[in-house]
Fold this protein.
Amino acid sequence: MKIFNTMTGKKEDFTPIIRDKVGIYACGVTVYDYCHIGHARSAVVFDVIRRYLKYKGFDVRYVRNFTDIDDKIIRRANEEGSAWDAVAQKYIDEYYTDMDRLGVARADVEPKATEHIKEMIEVIKTLIDRGYAYEVAEGENKSVYFSVDKFAEYGKLSKKEQKELLAGARVDVDERKKSPVDFALWKASKEGEPWWDSPWGKGRPGWHIECTAMVIKHLGESIDIHGGGADLIFPHHENEIAQSEAYTGKPFAKYWVHNGFITIDKEKMSKSLGNFFTIREILDKYDAEVIRLFILSSHYRSPIEFSNEQLHDAESSLERYYSTIARIDDFLSHALETTIPPLAKGGNKGGVELESILDKFKDRFEEAMDDDFNTALAIGHIFELVREANKFLDSKPSGEAAKALIKRSKDIFETVGEVLNLFNRTPAQWNIDLLKSKKISLTESEIESKIEERRIARQNKDWAKADAIRKELEEKGIILEDKKDGTSWKVKIS
RNA sequence: GGCGGCGUACCCAAGUGGCUAAGGGAGAGGUCUGCAAAACCUCGAUGCAGCGGUUCGAAUCCGCUCGCCGCCUCCA
């Protein structure tokens, strides 16, 4: 299995530090606002990485944090006239609301920065003792900064030279720092700000130190995978490395994994540009699974252009998938009750191709996922199987052997569906849920009674009436499909 | 200015040295159907931004050019 490591810029063979055990830490979100689709991407990507590692048999411990104290949270609280911790709690709740819908599982540990103040203070004290950090008085309290030039390897992750950082467009001029590239480990509290007691008086932690403290506490001093969005490479992860390795003297993480951005009109989606969509805005128009498939249809490191067309494509793909499952279910239930002799007219032609795809499927799926979690390729294989299964069903197969092949197909869909956490509804549920996301004002039973009305018309060969009902439903977004033993409905995509 | 990435059909997107360049969507024609829908079949890049080079062989490696983007400041 290979993973692209930002540290080396190469795909590397994945071997965990301790055999069969994997510790993953992914930087979560700062809880001061609703999550946008970019946050969703990161969450979904690491969710799948974690699921796949488990599928491969690793004992995975996954930690994802919440940054629940920070300038933006304080500002937000002041704007809203509420307490900073109420703001944090509110957006943690909203985070779960969104991520639950996207099928992002809870991490094994979801630590909050404010629950680790003691651990952070310990690390900072040690860094001062070892000469990596220095105190600066600010009124009656003190701040603590990390002295970047004391850590010779600074810049190794983001490939930046200290000299160039110093020469480049300037960071905020801050007289308190010895060097402009130094960063805060502990911030002296200003009037009206939340604070904690510390050896430096009243203050609060800097951003980066929380991850060092929480990684060490929950996963140990060296972990296997550390990840987050590509925008965290610098300065966040670079700073984490400096602090952590200065503190422990050990490599902080073996593999650094970063997901690419979501773009709009080719530009990075971001708060400052204002070109972002929140997860809930999109969920108002599309089913959550559509968003998840949209995200996983590209490799996690590639940029993804966000657009309605893209979401629509993902929706069409899911529609194709669930239509196929409906056919499969239909076939399996009929195969039970009918006793057409095997290899009746037509036989099981096409069974050879389907069988061959089925035989190779597991290997191909794992090969794709083993190659730096290539979900796009894996999904390609899934739709190849969809096509073969449909083709086989078109050949009017019968008998136990045919049933077994179709059953195998369905089992495979379920297995890979668990890894990607996609494809896990029934076709009926998919359509019922689509009524909601497409805002169709018909209930299931209303549709069923129209179908019954039409069935009678058809029985009487009243084609005009039958077609009128079909048309009426289609105008409301419902498509009818006539089959041998009845009519089924589904929501129109487009 | 420094560092990094990307450019594959109408759209999206795999493929990173060697069998016919996956898969999805859109489009055209066909089979099936009372009519439809779905599904299936056929058609669709002699070519992978452009130019040059390495090689028996390149979308894939190297060089240059063009275009787009990211990081260097909070950011998933």
About this structure: Chain A has three domains: 2-127+211-284, 308-429, 440-491. The mean pLDDT of chain A is 92.
